[in-house]
Amino acid sequence: MNGPHWTPQEWADGIRRADRAFLGRALSLVESSLEADVQRASELFAALGAAPESSFRLAITGNPGAGKSTLTEALGLRWAESGHKVAVLAVDPSSSLHRGSILGDKTRMEQLSKHPNAFIRPVASGGQLGGVAASTRAAMALLEYAGYTRLVLETVGVGQNETDAAHYVDAMLLLALPNAGDEVQGIKRGIMECADLIAVNKCDGSLVEAGARAAGQLRESLNWFGRDDGWKVPVLALSAQQGQGLPELDEALERFERWVRGTGQFDARRAQQRAHAWDEAWGQFLATWAEGQPELQSAKAQAKSAFDQGQNAQAALRAAFYPKK
Ligand SMILES: Nc1nc2c(ncn2[C@@H]2O[C@H](COP(=O)(O)OP(=O)(O)OP(=O)(O)O)[C@@H](O)[C@H]2O)c(=O)[nH]1
Ligand SMILES: [Mg+2]
Fold first, then answer.
1. Could you tell me what percent of the chain has a pLDDT over 90?
2. Would the CB of 130 count as within 6 Å of ligand 1?
3. DSSP designation for 105
4. Could you tell me if 182 and 287 lie in one domain?
5. Residue 129 burial (CB < 10 Å; 0-12/13-18/19+)?
6. pLDDT digits (tens, 9 = 90+) for 24-44
């Protein structure tokens, strides 16, 4: 990224006063995998110091078209009006193909994006199936340095690693639809298991009754997932578009936040996330480092050719890296 030549200190100051130009560029910086950008990003984080971890982070998941963006805008406006500083990271599946593309019409969050207390950022899913970009953690940290207190991650409701979002947030909200029970909705077991709250959206017009039925079915199927932490996952009926059920959902989220903080679960989850982040960073660092080690690379090539000739991969690697004297 050919950003202006701000010093790391200038970057850091700009971000701390939530200057949108600095913040926008910093978010692009952490998305970039160019060596020069990775270097600049690490200098920036060094200048910023320890992460404040000062926000409450919510992921909204659900099948395509469930109303995630509509709900994000409605909830976001509510929070922004009440004085919260709200930041939205909307994972945009298309932007892995068209880097830097702006959000499609329906995900633009027209009103929220104009609110002085809100900041909306499309992020590329980077081709990851779970729809959470690898740079999400760094992006969230930047938003916290800038003073945002509520972070919403709108995920892509497709793919095998949908539950990945749990590595990044304090609460998972699943959006379902009125038409049927969970099997018919195609909600996967993993997603049901990690949802802290469920809302059946589009409970308006002719769908009010069907919505109530779907909520009942979802409540019943939750009985199959014995959560042992004591939190009873609420299932609410909602119309993100009309606003019915929105205050109740907001209240349930607050109740969850009090519960998660009060029971120590919050700290435990963040600790797990930090451990996950460390493993991820170490793995990436190691892989990049190994690329630059000729001896490693030649042993690896030797192992690979044994593997290609039918040897077991572990056996081939061990033979190449720990040759018997
Ligand atoms: N009737 C009704 N329609 C809704 C409601 N919420 C969203 N919609 C409509 O459903 C469609 C999809 O809404 P989005 O908010 O874009 O859904 P999404 O889950 O963000 O979709 P993707 O990001 O593409 O996965 C839009 O046409 C919305 O206007 C609702 O509460 N009631
Ligand atoms: Mg959307």
1. 62
2. no
3. G
4. no
5. middle
6. 999 999 888 888 998 999 999
| 8-state DSSP, 157 | S
Residues 21 and 64 in one domain: no
- Cα distances (Å, whole numbers) of residue 92 to 189, 203, 277: 24, 26, 22
Q: Let me know whether 166 and 245 are in one domain.
A: yes
**pTM across the whole model:** 0.87
Same domain for 80 and 4, yes or no, is: no
Domain count, the chain: 3
Same domain, 63 and 149: yes
**Residues near 81 by beta carbon (within 8 Å), at least 6 away in sequence:** 115, 117
Give the residue numbers spanning the domain of 312.
274-321
| Mutational test site, ligand 1, from 71, 95, 106, max ligand atoms within 8 Å of CB | 106
* Burial (Cβ within 10 Å: 0-12, 13-18, ≥19) of residue 144: buried
Give dist(CA 315, CA 325) in Å, integer.
16
Asked whether the CA dihedral 241, 243, 245, 250 is positive or negative, the reply is: positive
How many angstroms separate the alpha carbon of residue 274 from the centre of ligand 1?
33
Based on the domain organization, do 171 and 197 belong to the same domain?
yes
Question: Is there an atom of ligand 1 within 6 Å of 64 CB?
Answer: yes
Judge if 216 and 317 occupy the same domain: no
Cα 320 to ligand 1 centre (Å) = 55
Q: Is residue 195 part of a domain?
A: yes
